[in-house]
Amino acid sequence: IGSNDIQVYHIFPESQYFTVSYRRQNEYDMQIHLVLQQPLDREEQPELDFTLIATDGGTPPRSGTTQIHIIILDVNDNAPIFEQDLYTGEVVENAPEGSLVRRVIATDADMGINGEITYHFSHAAAENQSKFTINAKNGEIRLREPLDFETTQKYEVSVRATDGGGLSALCKVLVDVVDVNDNAPEFVVSSFNNPLPENTGPGTAVALFTVRDQDSSMNAEITCALEDQLYFFLRPAFKNYYELVTVSTLDREERAQHIVVVTAADAGTPPLTTTHTFTVDISDVNDNAPVFNQTSYTMFVHENNVPAVLVGTVNATDADAGPNAKVSYSLVPAHPAEQEPCSCVSVNSENGHVFVLRPLDYEKLKQLEVVVSAADAGSPALSSNVTVRLVVVDENDNAPLVLHPAQDSSPPSSELVPAWAEAGDLVSKVVAADADSGQNSWLSYELLRATEPGLFAVGAQNGEVRLRRPLTDRDSVKQKLVVLVRDNG
């Protein structure tokens, strides 16, 4: 009581945060206050421990103590903090849905609900973020769907971390899409000259094309090759541009169409290839004259033929095409200086039929030759000639003519036979001729009538008249013989 009562309170050790304020209420009670001197930071020091000492005014002074333990309650005064402001990640294109891209981590110095962090995408880049999902609890970013390097090579997303008290922080995540060799080369044809004239010279560009690959790096490095380089080759123009070029002059008659296959391969692993087919048609040039199917023709016509009789056909073909292969026929002089061809022969210009226009007489004309020309319809036209030998075949249109004895003499021709003539002696000879030829002119002789039938005989082949027996007194002094001369027609 009195001065021996408590006189002073203080804290030990001294605290920068608290002081003691006390006031006597009455003789027996003292009101003591801990006074906060400055704001507390739980994240810096979550708890405080110190001793409150009460000292009396006696001599010697005495003191009493009590331990004070202060727990600082959390206030949401700290926003989440990401470990990095910028995160980078890589993902292989065509990686399956759900593949992990990157994990973002944020921490919050607060505790309890104030320190509980949830992750979500910021709405600022919704288009990019539609490709991804984020785990709200652990910050794992995964694929919502496979990505395509050829569509987008890089994505930028914003992630917001929010604590339970509503404070948040942002970070950026850059996602690089790693190319996979999933695209084969593509052909783009700029020009294609088709059809190609067959007289086109070597080194002529037929087509110009480019090859491209939507992949990148080695996956987009392309080489081109031809399967067959006999007629064409590839000539690089500039980067990934090529010309399809002729090796030599092409011949339509040898090959009218060329199938050219170009193969493009990238340098990926494994490489992807694409083929493109150029169908090159060779257009015709009139470089071939008509050719007859025979080097010469021999045709036969019977004399006394009917007018305009068909005696044969000439035929020529042309290796060209279209009008260049259309053949027409005509008669031409065998030599330029000659007169017009024989008017008795004609040829059909379209089908090559050869006609004899008027009757022929073998005895006047046994054969003749004409020249037939076959010309195509090209410009200029090409032509070739062939000789047609026309042989007149004899008809038996001439009776034998008796030359001896003369038939027009008056009196009739007579022969003298000696009385002593013997059997077999030559009396006379009938001589005849036939204007026909061949067997039509083969003559045979026959004794048709005689005054004394058994006295004379006529040689069937030579017309010789001979005695069959000696003459007698009973034989008539005059003998009349009729000899028949017959040809073999």
Automatic annotation (TrEMBL):
Q: Is Transmembrane given among the entry's keywords?
A: yes
Pfam families, per this entry?
Answer: Cadherin
Instruction: Read off the Gene3D superfamilies from this record.
Output: Cadherins
How does the record classify its membrane topology?
Answer: Single-pass type I membrane protein
Does Coiled coil appear among the keywords? no
Example GO molecular function term? calcium ion binding
Which keywords accompany this UniProt record?
Calcium, Cell adhesion, Cell membrane, Glycoprotein, Membrane, Repeat, Signal, Transmembrane, Transmembrane helix
- GO cellular component terms? plasma membrane
Q: Per the annotation, which location comes first and is thus the protein's main one?
A: membrane
Q: Where is the Cadherin domain?
A: 9-82, 83-187, 188-292, 293-402, 409-489
Q: Which residues form a coiled coil?
A: none
Biological-process GO terms, alphabetical: homophilic cell adhesion via plasma membrane adhesion molecules
Where can this protein be found?
Cell membrane
Cross-referenced InterPro entries, in alphabetical order?
Cadherin-like_dom, Cadherin-like_sf, Cadherin_CS, Protocadherin/Cadherin-CA
Tell me the domain of life.
Eukaryota
SUPFAM superfamilies hit by this protein: Cadherin-like
Question: What is the name of this protein?
Answer: PCDBF protein
Species name = Odontophorus gujanensis
